[in-house]
Amino acid sequence: QDPHIRSLAAQVGRTPSQVLHRWALQRGVGVIPKASSRERIVENARLLDFELSEVAMRLIDGLATLSESGATSPTKPVGQEDVFGLSALSVGTSQSAAAAQPAAAQVQTSTDP
Fold first, then answer.
1. CB 83 within 8 A of CB 65
2. Which of 6, 33, 82, 83 makes an SS bond possible with 62, Cβ 3.0 to 4.6 Å?
3. Does residue 77 register a pLDDT over 60?
4. Are 52 and 23 in contact, with CB atoms under 8 Å apart?
5. SS3 sequence, 28-63?
6. pTM to 2 decimal places
């Protein structure tokens, strides 16, 4: 378990699982928790009687960005802020291509009659 999530859970008096499920719900993601014990079913049902603060949401957004920074394809959900600016680091080749594009455009315009 991530220590940041455990700390947030302790602050709001919930389990780490509840915090992560609530984060997903507040981001508009459908959550279908799985549980086999009565205790976990009750725990999973208690997701709508609390809300995470904006600071907590941004912290978890940052953790999600960190966990996805090694992915080969963009997996960050639309609308999720890149708190640590990691997308710029993981697309270094795209930046090189973008930097070369103006030079190519100049070559094309200089050859036009």
1. yes
2. 83
3. no
4. yes
5. CCCCCCCCCCHHHHHHHHCCCCCCCCHHHHHHHHHH
6. 0.61
Residue partners of 93: CB distance under 8 A and separation at least 6: none
**Nearest Cα to Cα of residue 65 among 82, 50, 51, 48:** 82
- The number of helices, as runs of H, and strands, as runs of E, in the chain is 6, 0
Q: What is the pLDDT of residues 19-54, one digit of tens each?
A: 999 999 999 998 888 889 999 999 999 999 999 999
C-alpha to C-alpha distances, 17 to 8, 10, 69, 99, nearest whole angstrom: 11, 12, 22, 43
Percent of the chain clearing pLDDT 90 (strictly above): 38
Note the pLDDT of residue 97. Answer: 39
Residue 25: helix, strand or coil by DSSP?
Answer: helix
